[in-house]
Design goal:
With 150 residues, the protein is of the alpha+beta class. The chain contains four helices and seven strands, in the order βααβββαβαββ. Strand 2 and strand 3 form a beta hairpin. The termini are far apart.
Length: 150
């Protein structure tokens, strides 16, 4: 199965929201996707099948204070996982971050999401500590970081 990766547009956000809802216990609200798209449109990317079906997304956001980009969310439709689409989106995010002049990418991942952590480590992300209750009471997160060689 082959995908192409393209920019997200506002008309794509309902499909993104459906993937988010199917992927996370506490999904981001639609309005946050709108704000993230407006803030850094070049960092909001989609995995799309040949028939134009959106099967995944990755969102990079830019904190104002540092030359760091944050992977705010990355998800693949549960019906299309295990096809390496997440790897392709992550590679694309690293390319965008490097081209934008960022020094580092950071992300947070649930401590029990072992498969996502393995994917991030495969791309060179390192553990940078645990964030207690990041995902709610009793649900810790790991912060992971990738230094970019420019």
């Amino acid at each position: 199965m082959e995908i192409r990766i393209r920019n997200c547009y506002e008309e794509d956000l309902s499909a993104v929201s459906k993937i988010e809802d199917a992927s996370f216990d506490d999904p981001y609200p639609y309005e946050l996707f709108v704000a993230l798209l407006q803030d850094f449109p070049a960092g909001f990317r989609l995995a799309v099948l040949r028939n134009d079906q959106i099967v995944g997304y990755c969102i990079l956001s830019r904190p104002r204070e540092r030359r760091v980009l944050v992977i705010s969310s990355i998800a693949i439709d549960p019906n299309f996982r295990r096809h390496h689409f997440g790897s392709q989106l992550l590679a694309d995010a690293i390319r965008i971050a490097t081209e934008s002049g960022a020094n580092e990418i950071i992300l947070q991942v649930a401590v029990d999401n072992i498969s996502a952590q393995a994917l991030y480590r495969k791309f060179g992300f390192r553990d940078a500590g645990t964030i207690r209750n990041y995902y709610g009471r009793g649900r810790d997160g790991h912060q992971m970081e990738l230094a970019l060689n420019r």
